[in-house]
Amino acid sequence: MLRTIHQAGDVRNKAVILRCDFNVPLSDGQVSDDGRIRAALPTIEFLTNAGAKLVIISHLGRPDGSPAPEYSLKPVAERLSELLGKSVRFVSETIGPTASKAVGDLQGGDVALLENLRFDPREASKNPGERNVYASELALLGDIFVSDGFGVVHREQASVLELAKLLPSHAGLLIESELKVLENLTISPSRPYTVVLGGSKVSDKLGVIQHLLPKIDRLLIGGGMLFSFLAAKGMKIGKSLLEKEQFLNIQGFLSEADRLGVSLILPEDVVVASKFAPDADFEIVDADAIEESRFGATGIGLDIGPRGAELFSSMIKDSKTVFWNGPMGVFEFDNFAQGTRSVAQAMAEVDGISVVGGGDSAAAVRKLGFSENAFTHISTGGGASLEFLEGKLLPGLEVLND
User: Fold this and answer.
1) Could you list the active site residues?
2) pTM metric for this prediction
3) 202, 230, 363, 368: which has the highest count of C-beta atoms within 10 A?
């Protein structure tokens, strides 16, 4: 049974260390997508309204264990202040005298955000002993630990695993809501149940395909991974993304889907480009005729085609439960975003449960201008949501179980 924030008792004037996932994109020193910050607001407000002295910790990017100004959380503190309508004190270190004094100066209801956890190499160390030492130093700053960074609960990291062992620990409201939605996808989902997978690599999705195939009605494949499926079926794909080493797995999935009566659908057409660039010349061709485009064997598939998008959309809208992870094409380039846009629009029209599985999919729906309220749920953790649906035990959740 997961220990939740509701069981934390009276937190008035107690120092609560809150692990969030504020790994957000920055542009010109400002947060360009604040979705993960807004997702943490219910837990932050719950704790500050209860009178806690709130000490927020997070990572941002991959600074390789040393301070890097471009990965500072200071812009996050500024955006969080705006969203909360109150001052959030930014602290330029995670441990040490400056951090200790800043936390000591907090009053009930105050909020401080410490600097990037990954500026210290011990946070993501492969050595549990090193992580434990770092977690012990962090634990000195608080009385209670609340884990609410769903995007990192599948990681063995000091602020996720070891810190939770050192202090009374509880799951925050975001983790509660994420788990409720994901459990709906695995326990008696309403049917038809459709899973839409995209992104670049088949290897990233092996586990979730294998685990979900017996539970779903339809599997729609797009994105860069599509071209490995086409190649495994004997089609020529030009210079499109290819994982040849996955052919046996792909052929196994095709056979298993047929045996289970699951409709495994590939798009009928694709968008082939002359090069990987936003201004590339492109052509729409049948999926089995990529090298018959005017680009020949040098063509690159960068999106599903309009007929494929229409087929996917109709199947999505006909479903009662849909999980989508991975864009259908290179949505960052306007000419190759239509497949992803079509899937997002269909998801928004589902009369049932529609879950966007975090990561690039979440970034895509925001970039393309869709309201978050258009979907049942947008996950804040792409990797964590996939591993949960694969049936894996997530260390950051297991440590919160009684």
Assistant:
1) 36, 201, 359, 383
2) 0.91
3) 202
